[in-house]
């Protein structure tokens, strides 16, 4: 009996020792993994600090996350934009065509969670099929974006406001994420979140610095910077540029008749039309009721067509008994002309003042 008890004691001691050894091994492995993550984050910190390209920055952030989480094979970063929707900022393992798809807050994985911690979603495609409409599911299906077996979704917050999320995906049903992976992702996210926050805040400050507060168009200083770059590109690529100088007719009359608040509304509506019709080209508010449009690789004829379209839309806008109209001047330049930015703008202004004199003669 005593021998049996002794053997039983030795067996329990052996099992306990084995369990302790396993526990210590797991802890050692956990610490080693954390150390590896820490070292990797230090390695990319220098790259991130010296990266001016926003897309490259987010690629580094996402690529690092996928590299450090076991069984991760794909991923994405989505950020909240001005339209109130979450848009793909960068993707790894997915088609760039997904950037044409956006999501409301209710359509993302973490919409109903108050916690700021990462969360594991098993079979995320099931969530998508249930939550998203048929059209979005079809787009995801066409771009092979519903083949995830498991996802870790990490919310990104700035001042308690959800501004984005990092999704890390596994496509192997035999290699789903564990609670340890989720904890590691939270550890990684805390450092990477600071980078994303910093970049997000910097972008907001750039928008404020480079755009007119009232109309949302770019301001004079930033227009000058972009214009100088386009002149260099024009010379290097044997291209053309057309500048359209614009001045609203009798804008003072709107202010004097209806007040400055209505005048502000007129400037906002005017700017909306210009921005919509110009599209990917450059338009800016230079000062007061003066605007400028820069059209790349556009002929005089095409520029005239565009300004006619804008004028037709502007003339539909009414403020009481007063309508909106403007005078304009177009000046086109090519790479063979040795002409400065100031000279181009001055010549466009001269054409605009010719048009302005015609307007005043008519009235």
UniProtKB/TrEMBL annotation:
CDD domains (alphabetical): GGDEF
NCBIfam families hit by this protein: GGDEF
Pfam families: GAF_2 (PF13185), GGDEF (PF00990)
Domain of life, source organism: Bacteria
Source organism (scientific name): Clostridium malenominatum
Name of protein: Sensor domain-containing diguanylate cyclase
First and last residue of the signal peptide: none
InterPro entries: Diguanylate_Cyclase, GAF, GAF-like_dom_sf, GGDEF_dom, Nucleotide_cyclase, Rev_trsase/Diguanyl_cyclase
UniProt domain GGDEF: residue ranges: 239-363
């Amino acid at each position: 009996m005593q021998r049996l008890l002794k053997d039983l004691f030795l067996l329990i001691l052996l099992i306990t020792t084995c369990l302790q050894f396993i526990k210590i091994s797991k802890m050692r492995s956990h610490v080693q993994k954390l150390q590896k993550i820490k070292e990797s984050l230090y390695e990319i910190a220098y790259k991130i600090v010296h990266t001016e390209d926003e897309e490259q920055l987010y690629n580094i952030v996402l690529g690092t996350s996928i590299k450090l989480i076991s069984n991760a094979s794909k991923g994405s970063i989505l950020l909240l934009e001005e339209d109130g929707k979450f848009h793909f900022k960068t993707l790894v393992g997915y088609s760039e065509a997904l950037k044409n798809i956006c999501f409301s807050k209710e359509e993302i994985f973490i919409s109903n969670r108050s916690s700021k911690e990462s969360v594991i979603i098993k079979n995320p495609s099931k969530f998508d099929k249930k939550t998203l409409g048929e059209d979005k599911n079809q787009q995801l299906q066409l771009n092979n974006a519903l083949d995830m077996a498991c996802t870790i979704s990490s919310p990104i917050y700035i001042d308690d406001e959800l501004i984005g999320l990092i999704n890390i995906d596994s496509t192997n049903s035999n290699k789903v994420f564990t609670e340890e992976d989720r904890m590691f992702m939270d550890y990684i996210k805390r450092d990477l979140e600071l980078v994303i926050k910093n970049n997000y805040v910097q972008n907001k400050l750039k928008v404020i610095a480079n755009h007119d507060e009232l109309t949302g168009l770019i301001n004079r200083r930033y227009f000058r910077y972009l214009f100088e770059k386009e002149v260099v590109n024009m010379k290097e690529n044997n291209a053309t540029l057309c500048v359209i100088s614009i001045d609203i007719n009798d804008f003072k009359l709107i202010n004097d008749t209806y007040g400055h608040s209505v005048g502000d509304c007129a400037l906002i509506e005017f700017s909306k039309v210009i921005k919509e019709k110009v599209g990917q080209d450059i338009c800016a508010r230079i000062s007061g009721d003066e605007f400028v449009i820069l059209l790349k690789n556009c002929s005089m004829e095409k520029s005239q067509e565009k300004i006619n379209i804008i004028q037709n839309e502007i003339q539909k806008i009414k403020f009481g008994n007063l309508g909106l109209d403007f005078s304009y001047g177009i000046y086109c330049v090519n790479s063979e002309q040795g002409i400065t930015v100031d000279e181009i703008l001055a010549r466009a202004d001269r054409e605009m003042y010719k048009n302005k004199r015609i307007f005043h003669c008519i009235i």
